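In this supplementary section we document a worked example of the pipeline. Step one takes a protein sequence of length 364 as its only input; no multiple sequence alignment statistics are reported here. Step two produces a three-dimensional model, which step three serialises into structure tokens for compact storage. The input and output of this example are shown verbatim.
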Amino acid sequence: MNNSTHVFIYLTGPGWHILKEHAFMTKYCKHQFPIQSQLGCSYAALSSTLTGKDPEKHGHFSSYYFKKSNTILETAQRFYNKAIGKKSGYFGGYSVPMRNVNCFVQNNHYSKKLMPGYFSPLVSIVDMVHEKKLAHSIVNTNSTPPVQVLKNLRYRLKNETLAFAFIQIDEMDDLLHCYPYDFQKIDAKLRSYEKQIKKIITAGTNGHSNFNLTIFSGHGMTLAPQKINIKKKIDSLEITYGHDYYAAYDPTMAYFWFKNKSAKSIIHDKLHKLRHCKILSQKEKKEFGINFSDKRCGETIALVDPGFQISPNDVLPCTLPGMHGYDPNHSDSLGACFSTQKISPTPNRVKDFFSIMANFVTEY
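The serialised model returned by step three reads:
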């Protein structure tokens, strides 16, 4: 009988540099790796973790994607959602702007990603665990405090009723967006997690012949005090929104769709002249796994430099002190992988987290 137990804890927000600065789990997780983050929102990284695929495959990347209403009923439904204030995204606080209601759909990031079949036809780690019928705990901590979830996990380990766990903790993402410079607040939160995780490791090693705990971080956080008003500069051009082009704005990326070549040329010319902003090349889109064949997330994508935020944007009413979603190769963007056991091959990108978990699941 296989007596292995594997626990995976996914932290949204604290990347490689923050975890190292606070010496998080240094004594217990001796196998530590910096990880190239996934360009896009937090749920782009989580979806790549769960499926091992890029956003162009699993579909989660930006706040909105382009999809014009094809029927009166569909248009009415979108306006109804807007009217009742249906929201998603950062802090549950955004909905499609009125000017975009007929052409854009907001990504349902807060749907049930940790349920089997969610990414069908892709196979997620959740699907694999259910197919193997493993005793498991796969939960996010949006409705229950993370410390309580970690306590519950420890009790199950003591009772030896657990083979696999995936715990998603988003709490620190909010903290780091608002207080990225507050060492004491960050340290206090990490110490509270560390206290529970150490107890989990003790319970796991005492009751199981092969116990492993791995901590994943999908991205880091960057201090971003500078603003850049791309929308104002585009709106000032001699072209008309809805007639010549469409646009959507995230805090770190601007997305454009064109109805004629002239509009594309004019907007590209303006973007090339802007400081602290660049148009992603086709090569970069392929590298970052965002080369969507249907262009749903933009024919052209402009990415701002770390430390800058697009303001105003279609996601937040105001800028936040900390932000992510910058170039995955920037040092502040790095995610992390900390483990109690050796991991081979060495993970390099967020989507490699899936292979780590899948390898453990296939042992059963």
